[in-house]
Write a structure and sequence with these properties.
Layout: E1 4-7, H1 11-22, E2 27-30, H2 38-42, E3 46-47, H3 51-56, E4 60-63, H4 68-76, H5 81-84, E5 90-93, H6 99-110, E6 115-118, E7 121-122, H7 124-130, E8 133-138, H8 141-151, E9 155-162, H9 166-194, H10 199-206, H11 214-225, H12 234-251, H13 256-270, H14 281-288
Parallel strand pairs: 1-2, 1-4, 2-3, 4-5, 5-6, 8-9
Antiparallel strand pairs: 7-8
Helix pairs in contact: 1-7, 9-11, 9-12, 9-13, 9-14, 10-11, 12-13
Length: 292
């Protein structure tokens, strides 16, 4: 059984690492903020002093951090993974970052005999906790097949799309699509409420038709209550849309709905709502519609 390392124990990473510990993998973990590894230590994981120590104790290292600069830091910064990762080892990056940067990181790691698979995930904290994530893979076929048995402990739908960066590109597409659905659900619900309709009855009726979606089923209650406990941070989705919009500019693609959503999310973050679930897009529509 491969020795697993896990770098980044936030909401997503701690849940994913926990599944690997319970699956019986020898596990070594690290998080920038100390103390996050204590629950994993109770499951038998070793807590390392830095990413280099994780890599030294591991055959495969998974990463789950917030943004492109964070991935670069844990890979190539002082006491980073690249310092001690043995030739033949594998890095699986479950973060959502730039496809172009991913290709660069893969090339840099390859020079030391280390292979990178990009494996961004979709499904939010619920999917991480239930091990039902959707995982988008990019990388060499042999490395992907090596990663797959590990990732099967974390998700249900695991798809390899092509070479390095492909998984990140698909995640960008995912984030563009959900932006439009979140915004459309928010607009529709506020329209229903302003029209004097019972919004819960509307959700129940529409859920069985073409308007039905995971977002309608799982996030409409937050929009109706105007309360947005954490599922997926608005600030992180805004970061992801930045990646998608940059990719679109490079390819000459117009993304008007994604651009509008990013503008609305930017206003929410600026007002201190960045740590709420991104269904708080409804907060903006409620305000613009004088619902509250």
């Amino acid at each position: 059984m491969e020795r697993i390392g896990f770098v980044g124990l936030g909401t997503m990473g701690s849940a994913m690492a926990g599944h690997l510990a319970r699956a019986g993998y020898p596990l070594t973990v690290w998080n920038r903020t100390s103390g996050r590894g204590s629950a994993l230590a109770e499951l038998g994981a070793a807590v390392a002093a830095d990413p280099a120590a994780v890599a030294a104790a591991s055959d495969v290292v998974l990463i789950s951090v917030s943004d492109t600069p964070d991935v670069e830091a844990v890979l190539f910064g002082p006491r980073g993974i690249a310092e001690t990762a043995a030739s033949g080892s594998l890095v699986i990056d479950t973060s959502t970052i730039s496809p172009a940067a991913t290709r660069d990181f893969a090339t840099r790691l390859h020079s030391g005999g280390v292979t990178l698979v990009d494996a961004p995930v979709s499904g939010g904290s619920e999917g991480a906790n239930k091990a039902t994530l959707t995982i988008f893979l990019g990388g060499e076929p042999a490395a992907v097949e090596r990663a797959r048995p590990i990732l099967e402990h974390l998700g249900k739908t695991i798809t390899h799309f092509g070479p390095s960066g492909s998984g990140q590109a698909v995640k960008a597409v995912n984030q563009v699509m959900i932006a439009g659905v979140y915004l459309a659900v928010a607009e529709g619900l506020i329209l229903a409420m302003k029209a004097g309709l019972d919004p819960e009855q509307v959700v129940s009726a529409l859920g069985g038709g073409v308007a039905g979606s995971w977002i309608l089923a799982n996030r409409s209650a937050k929009m109706i209550a105007n309360e947005y406990p954490l599922g997926f941070r608005t600030s992180l989705h805004l970061k992801d849309l930045g990646i998608a919009l940059a990719m679109a500019r490079e390819l000459g693609v117009a993304l008007p709905v994604a651009a509008l959503t990013a503008q609305l999310e930017n206003s929410l973050v600026a007002r201190g709502y960045g740590d709420e679930d991104m269904s708080n897009l409804a907060r903006v529509i409620r305000e613009l519609s004088a619902l509250d």
